[in-house]
Amino acid sequence: MQTLLHQLKPEILKSLIEDVDRYDTVSKTLVELDENFFYEDLTIRQVKNLITFSDLISAKMSSWDFKYGDCFFENQIEDEIPL
Prior knowledge:
The chain is an all-alpha fold. Helix content is 51%, strand content 0%.
């Protein structure tokens, strides 16, 4: 299973990396993403930081984006379990 850092959409990761030298918060956010596997495990502060430093416009985000993080992460299905 990949960490959230590895599941980030390329454009989101690019935006974060561009700000890593300017803002300590971005470095901390990248570490926190690498320590978590599920969007649901992120705090409100961590999601706020993702919005702020990924250059997304929160007013254009859907409730689905906020609830499930679809605007940040690629859908990763590594191993499907046959039923």
